[in-house]
Specification:
The protein contains 16 helices and no strands. It is mainly alpha-helical and 392 residues long.
């Protein structure tokens, strides 16, 4: 056992808690935007299409930055790279209140770049430190992501009453700073070098069919999630639902995903065939969207069903990355690819949904789009779930 392994084993409870603390900061900066979009649009004059682009901007940052994360991670180590990302995240969030309309756009982009680093590297930590418990650890990690996202959605409108919408957006710089301070000791525990046997990566993930299947699943579940997160409050408000209730529904949508994310690993206990979990996680989005289209008066029921699917699908997607990656470096590469292309696809979703609503005058076409993507996700799940594990 090397020095780093012994040190990690001795501090395991603390290290687990710190990883989850990082996860809590990976979504609030994004999900606080959706409930505030109507007010942002009114005060800035942004059209629905422009509002959709604002919601998609962090996802474009994910797509651009994710493939590059492996380089600083190899040079400086994953913990130190994450520390820098937390600091940058705080700067980006604060900029949205300080620099006016320019800060709104630039700060959102900067925060998206920082979150992209965490998105890629935390699955790598799970692969490295929890090799024998990948699915449960991923479930807890994704639950923390969902809790952070749902809380931010729920408090966005109430915070804006006292701080203005800019202050409500910038508020999330505070927990990022706190996380950076608490994370700092761990950032100096690990060696910056990647072990020699992990650095080989003989076959690029971009030429592996397995990687493309994982990427497709990641992209589809991300797209449906971000369309709903960006537009659900606006869709409901267009039907006469008060803003605070619509924000609460978005909170519920994300919160129920916590339980689903913690439960779905039970379907991934036996071997590497996770097709049951992948399909189980994919079907609820189709059901939820169909319900919103056909029986909108029962919206809270359909929001809960769709939320169960997205919470479980995120865990399946992240687990696939950890199971199919080749060691630490290979997992970082696969995570970068899946999240780069996956979030590029996801970035198009809110923009296209906003465009369809703007040009049709209703949200029907946008919901149909989400339903179609959900059906495609079910098909991908049937294939991606059966792909065998890659060598560690």
């Amino acid at each position: 056992m090397n020095t780093r392994t012994a040190r990690t084993g001795a501090m395991a409870p603390v290290l687990v808690a710190l990883v989850f603390l990082v996860a809590l900061n990976l979504r609030p900066t994004l999900t606080t935007v959706g409930p505030l979009l109507p007010r942002i649009g009114d005060e800035t004059g942004l059209s629905e299409g422009a509002q959709g682009f604002l919601g998609a901007l962090p996802l474009l940052a994910f797509a651009a930055i994710s493939p590059l994360v492996q380089h600083p991670a190899r040079r400086f180590g994953v913990e130190r790279t994450l520390l820098v990302a937390l600091v940058v995240l705080a700067i980006g969030a604060a900029s949205r209140a300080v620099f006016g309309d320019v800060g709104l756009w630039a700060g959102t982009a900067v925060a998206g770049c920082a979150i992209a680093v965490g998105n890629v590297l935390v699955p790598t930590i799970v692969k490295r430190d929890y090799r024998d418990h990948v699915s449960p650890a991923t479930g807890v990690y994704s639950a923390c992501i969902t809790v952070g996202a749902s809380v931010a959605s729920a408090v966005a409108v109430p915070l804006s009453h006292g701080m203005g919408w800019r202050g409500a957006l910038a508020f999330w710089a505070v927990p990022a700073v706190v996380a950076a301070v608490i994370w700092s000791p761990r950032a100096w525990l690990g060696s910056p070098a990647v072990p020699a046997d992990e650095a080989q990566a003989a076959v690029s993930v971009w030429r592996q069919p397995t990687a493309w299947l994982v990427t497709a699943f990641m992209g589809l579940q991300s797209t449906t999630f971000y369309v709903i997160v960006t537009w659900l409050p606006t869709i409901e408000m267009s039907e006469g639902v008060p803003a605070e209730r619509a924000g609460l529904h978005l909170f519920v949508y994300q919160l129920v995903g916590v339980g689903a994310g913690l439960a779905i690993p039970r379907l991934m206990r036996h071997g590497d065939d996770v097709v049951r979990a992948a399909v189980t996680a994919s079907v609820p989005m189709v059901v939820g969207v169909a319900g919103l289209l056909l029986m909108p008066a029962w919206s809270i029921v359909w929001v809960v069903i769709a939320g169960l699917g997205t919470g479980a699908a995120l865990v399946v997607a992240l687990t696939l990355i950890s199971l199919r990656g080749r060691g630490q470096h290979g997992t970082t590469q696969l995570s970068g690819m899946a999240q780069s292309l996956g979030y590029l696809l996801a970035a198009l979703g809110p923009v296209l949904a906003g465009y369809l609503a703007e040009h049709t005058g209703t949200w029907t076409a946008s919901l149909v789009l989400v339903g179609v993507l959900g059906v495609v996700q079910v098909g991908v799940a049937l294939v991606a779930g059966r792909v065998p594990r890659q060598p560690a």
